[in-house]
Amino acid sequence: MVFAMNLLRQSVKPGSLRLLCAVVLFGFGFWASNLQVEAAQQPLTDAANTKAKVAGSEELITDDGTPEVALVLDNAIGVNRLTPSAYPATLQTIRIYFATLQGLPSPAGAQIKLIAFAGASGTTAPPANPTLLFNQTVTIPTLPSGGGFVDFPVQNGPTINSGDFYVGFQSPTPAGGVGILADSNGTPRNRGFASVDNGQSYVGPLTLTGGGPVNVLIRAVVMNDAQPTARLSVSSAFNFANVAVGANTEQTLAVSNAGSAPLSITAINSSNAQFAPVSLALPLTVPVGGQASLRIRFAPTSTGAHNGTLTIASNDPSQPSTTVSISGIGGAAPISPTAVVGSNAPQTGAVIAPPVSSGLLYQVQYVVYVPAGATQLKVDLTGDQDLDLFVRHDQRVAISGSNLLADFASNKDGVGLAESVTITPTTSPVLQTGFYYVAVANFGPGASNFNLTISVTGGTAAGVLSTVSAASYTGAEFAVDTIAAGFGANLATSTQVATTQPLPGTLAGTSIAVRDSALAQRLAPLFFVAGSQANYLIPSGTANGPALVTVTSGDGKISVGSLQIAAVAPGLFSANSSGQGLASAVLLRVKADNSQSFEPIARLDSTTNQFVPVPIDFGSATDQLFLVMYGTGIRGRSNLSAITALMGGASVDVLYAGPQNDFVGLDQINLPIPRSLAGRGNVDIVLTVDGKQSNTVRINIR
C-alpha cells in the first residue's frame, strides 16, 4: 500500500495548508515555508549526511535537514529505519524535527509517545507488531523560531548487535499541530514508514502521490565502537548576488569538522572558472570541533546567471568527495523594483539562487497597463531553473506570512519548464482595466536567467513613459517636489507652457497622476506639455517606494511609467540642460566693503550655439567668491551637515542647500570658492546629500 501525500507542489511553495485525501482515506497536510523576497544573501542550511561516524557516538541521518511535507493524523506512528556504522550500538537520543504548520496550533506542549524497535539489516519494512525496545511518553518543549530539531534523551537505551534501529513517535489524538515532517528534495533513502493501527502493521517506504519518495526528519544518536574519524560539515549551496562584469567579489565558505579526528582537506576544484578558491594552501587541516574559512571569489565574465559546483576532497570516510553548488549573477542589480513594459516587449532578467528548499521572489516586478476594451492578457515565462509566475491586478505581488498574494499563478514543478498565465473576461477573477503586476519566483536550485513576454489583446495599448530628473537627466530615484521630465509619444495634443502659479494640474487637456506605494493617487503640477515630453513636479505627500505614473492626453491616449520615490534624489542643473558640462550657476563676489555683485560663469556662443565657460577671476585678494548653484531633489535633506561638496576634488563647506523659493521645485546650493583653486581651469563639482551623490557639473577658474 502506498502512503500517498498528494501535493500541489513538492518544492516549498507559498500557500495555505491543504488537507488532502490519500488512498487509505487519511487526511494530510503539507507545510510550506515562506517564499522570500530577493534582497541580501540568505543563510543556507547544511546538507545532511546519511551517517556520520564519530568514535563512541554517531548521529544516524537520512534527511537533508529541511522539511517540505508533513503528515498530520490522529494517533499516527512515524518511524525511520537507521543503520549504525558499528556494533554494538546503544540508542542514546531520539532527535525529531517539529514546526508550527500553517493554520494549525504550535505542537509545543503536546504529548507524544517515543518508540524504538529493531529489525534485520536492509529490510524494506518494519516487522508486524514489533516488540518495542523503548516506549516513553514525553512533552514537546518550546520550539526554536521557525521550527527545528528537538532532542529526547533515552535513559539506559536499548543495544543492538546487528541490523537496524527503527525510531520515531506516535502523535496524540487529536493530533492538533503535531505532524510527522519529511523532506522531498533530498537524496531518496526509502527508510520512512508509518502506521495507523497502533503499530500492528506499517506502510511504506513513504512516497508522494506519483511515487516521489520522502525522508522523515527523525534521527538517532547511538553509541558504537567506531574508530576516530573526521567529519566534514559544509553548506550544500553557496551563492553570490550581483557582481559587475569585469569586477570580482569574495565571500567566506565555512567548513567545519564535526568528527573525532583531524579533518584534512586535500583539494577544492571548481567546475566553473568564474568561481575560484583564493589563497588556498593545501592540505588544510581542521581540528576536531574546529572550523576553516575558505575564501571564494566570483569574477563574472558575462552578464546573467552563472552556476557551478565546488568539489571538496577530504579524509572524511563517509564523504571523501563533497560537492557544494555555487551560483551568482553577472551585472549590476536592478535599480528600480518596478518596470513598466509595453505589450509584446520581451524582457530578460536574472534572479539569484534561493535558499535551500525554498523560493525567492525576484526583486523587480513588471507592470503592464490593460486598456478598456482589452479581451486578453497573456504572460509567458521561460528560464533555466524551476521558476514560477504570479500576476496580480492593481497591487504588487506580495508575501503575507506564509501566503503569497496574487490573483493568478503558474507553478509547474521542474527545472526549465515554461510557465504561462492567461486572463480573459471569463477567468476568475475577470480581466479588468488598469495595472497588472507580474512577479517571477525562483525555486532553483541555482541562479536563473529568464525571459518574460506580456501581451495585451484588444483596446488601445498604452504608451510607455520614461521619466528622468530635469536636472541630472537620470531616473534612478525621485524626491517629492522634484522637477521631472517625462518622455514618450502622444503625451499631449499640443504644446503648452504653464503661465500661472500654483502650477495647473491640466495643460492642453493633458493630466499626470502619480500613484504611490500606499496606493494614494495625486495629480502632478505641470510645467510644460508637448507631444513627446511633459515636465511635471513630483507631488508633495507622495510616499517613498515604487510609484506609477499615468499620463492621460487630451484625446484620451494613455502612457504609463514607474518611479522610485526617496527622501532625497540630488540633481544639479547644467547650463545646456543635459545634466553635464558647465553648471547652471552664477558667481557672487563680495568685496571688502561688503558690496555684492553677480557674474555669469557661462555664455552661449552664437557661432557654435553651445555654452562656453566664462573663467572665474579671483580679483582682489580681499574679494570673497561664492558659487550659487541650482538643482532639484535636495530640499528633503536631513540636515545641512549631511551634505558634502567636492570642488576640484577638494572638500568645501556647504553654506546653504534648500528651496530657491522663486521657482517651484528649484533648489539652491551656495558654496565658497577657495583661492587654492586659482589657475586650475576646468573644475568638477559633485554634491553628496544624505549619502546620495549628484551628477557632476563643471566651472572654469582662471
Any descriptors?
702 residues, mainly beta, 7-stranded mixed beta sheet, 6-stranded antiparallel beta sheet, 62 strands, 45% strand, elongated, disordered N terminus
Structure description:
This protein is mostly beta strands. The protein contains no helices and 62 strands. Strands 3, 27, 29, 30, 32, 35 and 37 form a 7-stranded mixed β-sheet that branches. Strands 4, 5, 8, 11, 12 and 17 form a 6-stranded antiparallel β-sheet that branches. A hairpin with a 2-residue loop joins strand 43 (506-507) and strand 44.
Summarize the structure.
The protein is mostly beta strands and 702 residues long. The model is unreliable at 1-35 and 38-54 (pLDDT under 50).
- Share in helix: under 10%
Low-confidence stretches: 1-35, 38-54
- Coarse morphology: elongated
Mean pLDDT: 89
The main β sheet shows up as: 7 strands, mixed
The number of helical runs is 0
Compile the SSE list and pairings.
Blueprint: E1 20-21, E2 27-28, E3 36-37, E4 51-52, E5 58-60, E6 69-71, E7 77-82, E8 89-98, E9 111-119, E10 134-139, E11 148-153, E12 159-160, E13 164-170, E14 180-183, E15 192-195, E16 215-216, E17 218-223, E18 232-234, E19 237-243, E20 249-257, E21 263-270, E22 275-277, E23 284-286, E24 291-298, E25 304-314, E26 321-330, E27 338-340, E28 347-351, E29 360-361, E30 365-370, E31 374-383, E32 387-393, E33 398-400, E34 403-405, E35 408-410, E36 419-423, E37 434-442, E38 448-458, E39 463-464, E40 466-469, E41 483-487, E42 496-497, E43 506-507, E44 510-515, E45 521-523, E46 526-529, E47 533-537, E48 545-552, E49 558-565, E50 571-572, E51 585-590, E52 596-600, E53 602-605, E54 610-613, E55 624-632, E56 643-647, E57 650-652, E58 656-659, E59 667-672, E60 681-689, E61 692-693, E62 697-701
Parallel strand pairs: 3-29, 19-26, 27-30, 39-49
Antiparallel strand pairs: 1-2, 4-5, 5-17, 6-14, 7-13, 7-15, 8-11, 8-12, 8-17, 9-10, 9-13, 14-16, 18-20, 20-24, 21-23, 21-25, 22-24, 25-26, 28-38, 29-37, 30-37, 31-36, 31-38, 32-35, 32-37, 33-34, 40-41, 41-47, 42-46, 43-44, 44-45, 44-48, 46-47, 48-49, 50-55, 51-52, 51-55, 53-54, 55-59, 56-57, ...
